[in-house]
Amino acid sequence: MPGFIKSVVIASTVAAGTVGSVAAIGMGFDASFTGAAGPAPDPGPSVVRMAPISVHIGGWTLKKKKNEDKTLIVSIAIDVPDGDARDAVCRLMPRLVSAVNSEVSRNVLYQATWKEALTGSLGQRLTVRFNRALGRTLINGVRLQAHASETEAPPATCADTV
Hints:
Layout: H1 2-28, E1 46-49, E2 53-56, E3 71-80, H2 83-91, H3 93-109, H4 114-118, H5 122-134, E4 141-147
Antiparallel strand pairs: 1-3, 2-3, 3-4
Helix pairs in contact: 3-5
């Protein structure tokens, strides 16, 4: 039996030496198999979509407009230049919702129909208003789209911050 134990000890020593030398050589190289040495590159421009917002059509006037006394679901897409801007817009989304409620409601109130209210310069005005609400220029453009119900509207892209 002494010959068997001797051969097991020699084989274990050779195996440990081989594994140890391979590990030492591997630690000597600073190679990354993913190809990226630092953080992942920013994907560039993207779109942030707000949660659907309901807007009362017809405003709150004493004079009723032509059969437009209902609620409209508005979906808003915001163009941002990079990931940092996207994170800031998502973090400050409650400010933008407040700006939408006041600007869109006022625009719908003074237009003949909701279709006229959501077209024209409303997107440009919301871009300026959003950037003012955020305190700096983070938004390149705003697009609005009307939907009949919240189920038809695309979902928000920001995670809930509540």
